[in-house]
Amino acid sequence: MAKSKKQKSRTKAESKKVVKLKSKKLAAKANGLPKPSSKPYGKDGKALTGVRILDFTHVQSGPTCTQLLGYMGADVIKVERPGVGDITRTQLRDVKGQDSLYFTMLNGNKRSITIDSKHPQGKRVLDALIKTCDVLVENFAPGALDRMGLTWEHIHKLNPRMIVASVKGFGPGPYEDCKVYENVAQCAGGSASTTGFREGPPLVTGAQIGDSGTGLHVAWGIVCALYQRMRTGRGQKVLCAMQDGVLNLARVKLRDQQRLKVGPLSEYSQFGEGVPFGKAVPRAGNDSGGGQPGWILKCKGWESDPDAYIYFITQAPVWGEICDLIGKPQWKTDPDYATPPARLPKLKQIFATIEEWTMTKTKFEVMDICNKVDIPVGPILSMKEIAEEKSLRDTGTVVEVDHPGRGKYLTVGNPVKMSDSITEVERSPLLGEHTDEILKDVLGFKAAEIAEIKNSGALSAPKKEEKAA
Ligand code: COA
Fold it and tell me: What is the DSSP string of 438-449?
């Protein structure tokens, strides 16, 4: 039966209502999120596209954080002191007159603007940047930001949405005013006292857990603050003390400190050697930090190659496979060796026997043989081997970048891979390379204003520094 005009329009109105209701339901289900992008993965911007960072960092901890944010697509504007820049530009130089690897490897994916933050016209530019950025990141000595006039109150008044993230050596307490570098943090965060051999002094590690580790923590704090800001509309302070960052990474040792109260730490080789434990967690050499005993063993060529070693883990489920490989099948059933508790007091002797076998093979041969039967082992890779490793180049973990001053150099790309936020590693900026572009395009200053600011000397090196150089 044919519908009348009235009936038809009613049907239309009704169906519109249904569609509205349906999309409301869908929106509720989607938690207020936009509908999924129809663009191919990797083609719809990056994770932090649209986020602008006022990067007031220097040396290593802060720059690690802002470089990671840059890898994720944030627009990172690095503020540097005119004529000088980040101190690492000239530290450990390998090419005369050029930015060092120390600087270039920590400052990719950033733009550089030079501003004297203590000059009135410099403050004018900084205030304008504060108004337009989402996050300020700094790792100055305690109080330095306030001495520049950039107090939380000042920043928050200009831009209540701004997140102010800081790295400091220590949190509030007796050492809060101290200046801190990497190894100080490793020592104060509990890493050094638990690293090294029992008979030797405390050791610091090569991995920069104080600087880069804390930079990583702060980056995480910033992303969380950005997420919370979506709900609250306001910024907040984000602080990570290097001592706290190191302790977070050394938490298994605080675990062991508490276990000490109820008895010796049976997985430490010291237990098997019958050496009594003291009041604090001891250094455990190359013992594994978990429940599966491990040790570093010599491989073929160790006499001349300092890295011809392998980390070998005697994981319980593959004990039988280990016994077969090393020619000790009787250990599979011998009650003195067959169970993990029975093996604990004999770890030193067991690893010495396994080492007799690993010494007949290169570390890569051990790797191949063991992995076939699921025995967890890890070759001790030198930095030379890592730099030359093809698979790390293929994944973008090690990247070659071209620099106009120093030529090609290797850097570490984004260690986190995301399917919809593809990292393109860019070279580090020259000192003040983007000053004009930022004043004009980001801050919208007119040519006359730029000239006024420049003529004031707020963006260039003071005369006496020029003479000294
Ligand atoms: N314009 C003008 N002045 C600037 C400036 C700029 N663009 N950038 C920095 N400065 C000034 C600071 O305001 C400060 O002056 P002040 O002492 O009068 O306040 C001065 O430069 C030095 O800054 P500071 O942070 O004290 O540098 P430092 O070289 O003496 O100390 C650290 C370096 C790393 C020890 C210290 O910054 C620190 O403890 N940071 C926190 C912990 C940290 O991150 N450590 C690890 C670094 S990898």
Answer: IIIIIT---HHH
- Do the bridges between strand 294-298 and strand 52-56 make them parallel or antiparallel, or are there none, so unpaired? unpaired
Strand 75-80 and strand 52-56: pairing? parallel
DSSP conformational letter for 223: H
Distance CA 399, CA 146 (A): 38
Q: What is the pTM of this model?
A: 0.92
Q: CB under 8 Å to 208, separation ≥6 — which residues?
A: 60, 182
Mutate to test the pocket of ligand 1, among 103, 179, 184, 456 (most ligand atoms within 8 A of CB): 179
139 lines ligand 1 (CB under 6 A): yes
* φ/ψ of residue 315, rounded to 5: -65, 130
Residues 139, 140, 143: CA angle, nearest 5 degrees: 125
380-438 residue pLDDT tens: 999 999 999 999 999 999 999 999 999 999 999 999 999 999 999 999 999 999 999 99
Position 216, amino acid = L
Cα of 306 vs centre of ligand 1, distance in Å, is 38
Q: Is the CB of 123 under 6 A from ligand 1?
A: no
* DSSP code per residue over 380-411: ---HHHHHH-HHHHHTTSEEEEEETTTEEEEE
Per the CB < 8 A criterion, the answer to whether 427 and 436 are in contact is no
Q: How far apart are CA 80 and CA 86, in angstroms?
A: 6
Q: Which numbered atom of ligand 1 lies nearest the CA of 169?
A: 42
Pocket-testing residue among 64, 80, 140, ligand 1, by greatest number of atoms within 8 A of Cβ: 140
408 forms beta bridges with 402
In whole angstroms, give the CA distance from residue 354 to residue 325: 9
